[in-house]
Amino acid sequence: MMPGIQSAEASRQADLLDRAGRYLAGGGLGLFVLPPDVNLVIAEGRGSHVIDVSGRDFIDYHLGSGPALLGHAHPEIVEAVQRQVAKGSTYYFLNEPVIRLAQRLVEAIPCADQVHFTGSGTEATFFALRLARAATGRQKVLKFEGGWHGMHDYALWGTVPPRPSSYPDAEPDSRGIPDALRGQVLVAPFNDTGRAVELIDRHAHELAAVLVEPLERVLVPVPGFLEALRDATRRHGIVLIFDEVVTGFRIAWGGAQERYGVIPDLATYGKAMSGGFPMAAIAGRRDLMAHLDARRTDRSHLVWASGTLNGNPVSASAGYAALDVLSRPGAFGHLHRIGGRLRREIAAAGARHGFAVQTPGEDAVWGVRFTDRTPLRTWEDLLTADKELNLRWSVELLKRGILVNPNEKFYISLAHTDADVDRTLEACDAAFAAMRA
Ligand SMILES: Cc1ncc(COP(=O)(O)O)c(C=O)c1O
């Protein structure tokens, strides 16, 4: 092709991006928009790869922000969905796929006697907090600085503060959060066990719930931290909620509860749980879940957590098929092996090129952070990372066919191969070299 002349596919992609800019708010789908020189429109996902409209092939480490844990278009999920969709896509009433998935979740999730389905992770954490208020008769909730629990008004406090908060006060992350909620959501420093327990003890009389991502983005809990939250909440009758939307069925079959050996009262699930289809869940103890039971009491005494698509049979079929594949021997070993190799070798490549690069997290989900602060334990530690450098490096990766979300996470799938890792490491090395040049 002559320089300056675009292929028909590249023109089509440019035209689509132009139309996205005109018709979609912000030209994208939310907070996340790639820089214009590397922006793309995905045409297709196959296993660990995606192909954009211009025909370029990428190894995908974003996996739809986590749901495609089996890789894209896994044949068993495609088959399960096709079988169900031909029989109708939503009923509102009970259906077999959703009952089968509920049983599978209860059998797998350590804290679960029962589950309740929702449409998204945001709804799951939102309703879990409502459940905790109903169960305790208290109003306030405590979350952790840097913890991500979706987009509702109680979640968006101290999620990505530019500087450490004046605990337990925090600022809202978004505009449009009601002022009336100031002081309703308390924020504590993640992995600061003494401070967190002190805040829980001090506010126990008004706390309905402590909500935590057990692996907070890329920060692994320090030994004793989750155990201390468990003890303090149990002592005060506060509902401990693990947000396992990312960790569930990813860092172990039993999620963070199995990996870190701490069992909460409630847990929220999404992403991997529904095989790339829209569905999420709250799982928990029978006495807490009973607050959702419309047979038990009249509606005015219930926790309302209904939704038109809550028991969607297509999503449930996808989720059941995904969990079936994940339950087979070797699945988690594969994620650890592929992710572990990438984490070690990317950090080493950074060092070879003179960059202080770390890869915190668990092997199935981790991040790349440009910082010499060690160990990385708190949000304050993460604030030392150079985001501009990370963005430049990520853009170099995108140019070399590696799909990443800058400054966020690398998600590993069952479909990533050693050949993918070899190609990724070559691209990483070249990206570091390009930055040095
Ligand atoms: C830990 C965690 N909780 C909740 C959510 C919200 O889930 P959703 O995007 O399905 O609303 C997310 C989304 O990324 C998440 O990472």
Question: Nutshell version of this structure?
Answer:
The chain has 437 residues and is of the alpha/beta class. Helix content is 37%, strand content 14%.
Describe this structure in words.
The structure is a single chain. This protein has 437 residues and is an alpha/beta fold. It has two domains: 8-73 and 331-436, Aspartate Aminotransferase, domain 1 (Alpha-Beta Complex), CATH 3.90.1150; 75-326, Type I PLP-dependent aspartate aminotransferase-like (Major domain) (Aspartate Aminotransferase, domain 2, 3-Layer(aba) Sandwich). The protein is built from 13 helices and 16 strands. The chain has helices at 8-23, 75-85, 96-108, 121-136, 193-203, 225-236, 255-260, 286-289, 313-326, 331-352, 379-382, 387-399, 418-436, and strands at 42-46, 49-52, 57-60, 114-118, 140-144, 185-188, 207-212, 239-243, 266-269, 280-284, 357-358, 361-362, 365-367, 369-370, 402-403, 409-411. The strands form four sheets. The protein has a seven-stranded mixed β-sheet, with helices on both faces. Strands 1-2-3-15 form a four-stranded mixed β-sheet. β1 and β2 form a beta hairpin. α2 runs antiparallel to α9 and α5 (193-203) runs parallel beside α6 (225-236). It is globular, with a radius of gyration of 22 Å. The protein starts with 7 loop residues before the first helix and ends with a helix. The model has no long low-confidence stretch (mean pLDDT 96). Pyridoxal-5'-phosphate is lined by residues 65, 120-122, 125, 148-150, 213, 243, 245-246, 270, 280.
